[in-house]
Amino acid sequence: MEAPNDLLKAAAQVLPNAYAPYSGYKVAAAVRTSSGRIYTGTNVENASYGLSMCAERVAIFSAVASGERKVTEVLVLVERGPPATPCGACLQVISEFGDDSTRIYSVSLETRESNTWTLRELLPHRFTKETLKATRRDQK
């Protein structure tokens, strides 16, 4: 499945804003929510690497800050190199606001290659709200 043009265009618009002075690896993301709105983000690095933030999480957190709670599609755009899957932390955040059918697209601006997956394909055995609910029931 080809990446939706509107998500690709939105990510391409913000890619120059990526802050990647340490790795030089610029990434942008665009997410579509159940309302149809698109939110964008870029990676933001920090000299203390653990404080860096991936583009996918920036975009999702922006959506949540605007009142959204359901992500239906995520597009990851890398400036160079092959298309990249979201990291584990990003997949877990996507799972918090998406579901098994949430589409994840990855596109390389340099090579024009792309990949598409569902969240279930990339993170089939994730930690979910249901996991916590089951744990609370066990404690009663």
Question: What is the compact description of this entry?
Answer:
With 140 residues, the protein is α+β, with helices and mostly antiparallel strands. It is built from 5 helices and 5 strands, in the order αββαβαββαα.
**Morphology:** globular
CATH class: Alpha Beta
Lateral arrangement of strands in the main beta sheet: 2-1-3-4-5
What is the architecture at the second tier of CATH?
A: 3-Layer(aba) Sandwich
The count of strands amounts to 5
Overview of the structural elements:
With 140 residues, the chain is α+β, with helices and mostly antiparallel strands. The chain has one domain: Cytidine Deaminase, domain 2. The chain has five helices and five strands; from the N terminus they run αββαβαββαα. The protein has helices at residues 5-14, 55-65, 88-97, 119-122, 129-139; strands at residues 27-33, 38-42, 71-78, 103-108, 114-118. It has a five-stranded mixed β-sheet. Strand 3, helix 3 and strand 4 (103-108) form a beta-alpha-beta unit. 34% of the residues are buried. The model has no long low-confidence stretch (mean pLDDT 95).
